[in-house]
Design a protein that fits this description.
The protein is of the alpha/beta class. It has two helices and eight strands.
Length: about 160
């Protein structure tokens, strides 16, 4: 009977330590949602982006992805972004989806333009670049499926001697 009590106490200690570790990990990771004004960005491919993903400018988090949906008419991904109120984006700001690292997720990177007018709340970022599929690029490189015809000699491209 004494052994069961010790095992139960040790199990409780392990659970408390695990819970403390989870709380510490979330507080140290800097995960926070940003409240501010909302803008939209339309991407041809929004792979790896989901609500809660970071929106960064110059490597600094300035916003959060709040929603993502498919436009049934154009079949593009409409991503809604919340930007901090203190950040006023120029009207010609561009957005692109960038990988965090080789094994990490993706985030939205904003590049401010030079326009004198600012993007209004509820406005749309016009210049976007979707996610790049690294696995697809690697497959094209390895298997020569680039489609440029330049990998085969005498491919009939009209360049060079035949």
């Amino acid at each position: 009977m004494k052994r069961n009590i010790i095992e139960t106490v040790m199990g409780g200690v392990v659970l408390v330590v695990a819970a403390a570790f989870v709380v510490f990990a979330f507080s140290a990771s800097g995960m926070r949602t940003v409240s501010g004004y909302q803008v939209r960005a339309v991407f041809d491919d929004a792979t790896g982006i989901s609500p809660g993903a970071d929106v960064r400018m110059s490597g600094v988090k300035v916003g959060t992805v709040t929603a993502q949906e498919l436009d049934p008419n154009t079949f593009f991904a409409e991503v809604t972004i919340s930007i901090e109120d203190r950040i006023q984006l120029p009207d010609d700001t561009s957005a692109r989806i960038v990988p965090e690292g080789l094994l990490g997720g993706n985030y939205v990177e904003l590049q401010p333009g030079g326009a004198l007018e600012n993007l209004e709340p509820g406005g749309t970022i016009e210049y976007t670049q979707g996610a790049i599929n690294v696995v697809d690029l690697l497959g094209r490189f390895i298997f020569g499926g680039g489609g440029d015809g330049g990998s085969q000699p005498n491919s009939g491209s009209g360049l060079g001697p035949s």
